[in-house]
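Why Tyrosine--tRNA ligase? Reviewers of the renewal asked for a concrete example.
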Amino acid sequence: METAPGPQEKYHLITRNLQEVLGEDKLMAVLKEREVKIYWGTATTGKPHVAYFVPMSKIADFLKAGCEVTILFADLHAYLDNMKAPWELLELRTRYYENVIKAMLESIGVPLEKLKFVRGTDYQLSKEYTLDVYRLSSVVTQHDAKKAGAEVVKQVEHPLLSGLLYPGLQALDEEYLKVDAQFGGVDQRKIFTFAEKYLPSLGYAKRIHLMNPMIPGLTGSKMSSSEEDSKIDLLDRKEDVKKKLKKAFCEPGNVENNGVLSFIKHVLFPLKSEFVILREEKWGGNKTYTAYEALEKDFAEQVVHPGDLKNSVEVALNKLLDPIREKFNSPELKKLTSAAYPNPSKAKPAEKGTKNSEPENVVPSRLDIRVGKVISVEKHPDADSLYVEKIDVGEPEPRTVVSGLVQFVPKEQLQDRLVVLLCNLKPQKMRGVESQGMVLCASSVGEPRQVEPLDPPAECCAGERVYVEGYEDGEPDDELKPKKKVFEKLQADFRISEDCIAQWKEKNFLTKLGSISCKSLKGGSIS
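Here is what the prediction returned.
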């Protein structure tokens, strides 16, 4: 018969693999007296992806430590965060989250009866909660509310008041869910410290805060619902998993920003306490690792090849995804999925009697625009006005891109700079060299013509998705068909604002770190 873990062992289970704990002494004090009550909340916005296995794996740890765990489906938060979930889709998306999160937990062997599931609107619309929101708004400054949500609430040029309410509601959830601790990603840290500062001003206790690291996505940046190539969807087919893992950033010997290794560390190892590298006998045969550090060391020393690492993760990941795929293969859940996440690029059927109706929606989410880093720049061998650039867009190999920038941008100003690249144009030969994308630039309206490459925020990584405000959830076309002229139709409404921000129909081009801009060409066009 297994002996129940003691306070020290429980503390280890609760805190292992976390990046930071605020309130360690209080956590140990509670453990010495009783079981800890913890909640994890998720706003019901974009489709959950495989990175959600990271908090699920920690929830399994919490249960092993005897904790009482509540999972909050934060439906109201999803609406308040710049309406990431439209009101008419809120109920559908919350139902989708409930089904998919429960399927994930079942796939890793977590008993659902030990968990409590709550929707935000179950209590956030009550008289008492609403009064506390007003009480909180009377003591919180606008500066503190904006600062608290900076890493979580979508940042736009003209923020809505709803985004300022978001951190306060998350703080109050700790009191209304009657927990000792809140668990989340380290990107929530500012909201957690906001809660620690302001809850006592309402007479409520300061809580413990447990923070997971933000694991890199497959492109090397944060895994995100709005960056299609950075994440594997829970319902992706096996061939899609293979394709995305094949493209994943996994440089030989490089353990920094390696999303494949991070997934093993934070999901696969904690679940099984081991990981098997699958490989042919001629390369040494299969090898079982019982400590993540040993695997990381072998990868750093190039004993383990990226191809074998990816293949092994593919097998292990599909074992986790198979029961989720099977559950969502039912007609009822298929219908729920398509209703909760309608494809914006799919045409709505034309009404009877309409003429010249557009056969498909021409929306910015159909463009695959990414941040790129220029690795090399050379003059085109057969054209004096063209550069041939090698640009890293987060894929295994850099893309070759031909640009007519020789007259406008000196070679040394392009070398090593970040640019904005349209990646799903049909490749075409330009004077004998195939170009696999287009560097987007601002152009002046009058003469003499001036051209400036668009600038992403300086902290961006190569491969990060660029999207238009309000269109972050759609999936880009695999390849834009030249005859459809999708890019040309959208480009007609591309402009540079008076603040030098790139826009489509007065909506900003964004990355998760901020707006796309240019240096000086106010009112210019984008091409």
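The two ends are 70 Å apart (CA to CA). This is the kind of structural detail the renewal will allow us to pursue systematically.
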